[in-house]
Request: fold
Amino acid sequence: MLVLQTVAFSAVAFADSAPSDSGAAAVSEADSPSADEPSSVPEAVYAAPTEPLPVPEAVFAMPANLVAMAAVPTDKTAVFMEANSTFPLEVTQGNAVIDPNGIIQGRQPFTLKSEGLKVPVNGDDSNPTNANLDLYIQKGDWIELKREDYFKEVVLPTTNKTLNAQTESGMKQLGTAYFTPNSIRIVFNGDDNFFNGVGRGIVFSFVTTADADVTGMEYGDTKPINIFGGAYQLENPDVTAAYSITLSSPGMIRWDQYGYRGIQPAQFVEGAITWQSSVSAFDQFDKTIKLPLDGKTFYTNPSTYNTGFGNVRGIYMEDSFKVNDQNVTPDIGADGSLTYTFPQGTGVDPKVEYKTWIPKEAYYYEHRNPPGNLGRSYRDMNGKVELRQDNNMLVQAGQEISFAPDWIQASASYDNPNETITWKVTVNQYNKKRFKGLYHHKCTTSRAGVYFSHMADVGGWHCI
Reply:
């Protein structure tokens, strides 16, 4: 990610501005860095001299001969680098400044910051109107700092940004900056008054994040590198494992912006929740370097899923445990816990799946008016999984699955002439097969009681 810092300019005023000693003008916020943007636009301050120049205003007019002398735009990298023979550079990594000959850790981002880079222009010459155009940067000229020449082991981000300068007559463009992994190119295509002999003492700064190129280096190797003339040591550190683990349920319904998730209707009819967990090991500095999980242990205890925010325990469904879609057998503890140690050759990023039954005390817990948003106020199973090594937890994850059983649906109609109420009650609205436990539930009316009868053809129980 590139962050272009404010660029500072110090120069006399534009031709249409009277010289003053008011100091540097405020930087416009139009293109200033913002924490909400992935990269920010460089800025510039185009200031007045410390003392008014005792020069008639006519002198500031564009000389006719200078217009005629305008050259074809050329590469002025050599001119720029001669003006910046001691290239100002600060390297930071994390919160630490890396001193010259200090160690830059590869596979970790770092920051390059350069302040006070000089832009030699005609106004810097003792006779601006007759300056040697080859020795100064003219409008349309460019510089290109190539990776091969100036930062061979450094990889920069890619972005294009306009380089602006705040002047006494408003914001003016100085040039355009192009950052790529292989070069920094600045085209000075801005306002004429920066290059016509009026502007002078122009400097700018930049800040960019960068990565190191450790191609060809073994883990643990160190080698000397050069960044814009500064000497440093680049180390490709040994691989240090980090871990991640996730927990979810296939097709779970998102109730709100928080962590609440609802059970799939098909899972509820089955009476069990399917849990899926992805486990991963990787280098702590580069997640693309995957590491095996051989010998590490997956752990969960469904009997504790009713602790914390949960109010429903889980009961492991036998023969439901799978790793990478293959049935395996976990060790089942006396407390209902499940442990499975990944064997040699498991590979990277294994996927674990298992099911837990919903106990009857939660499964048949009737909610008269189930809400559209199920939070912790209803039936909630709080799944938890861990990755362990030698009984020490390396990483953990959890997921709440909530549901509000609503087995019984009732409606009624009133016959006024006969003063009777006809009730219709659907007891098994989910159409669950082999439904048990609701025989002879009494349904009352204003006159007499009636009983449930089985309606096999509709797959449910009704009170009629």
Observations:
- Residues 1-69, 437-464 have pLDDT under 50 and may be disordered.
- The first strand starts at residue 2 and ends at 3.
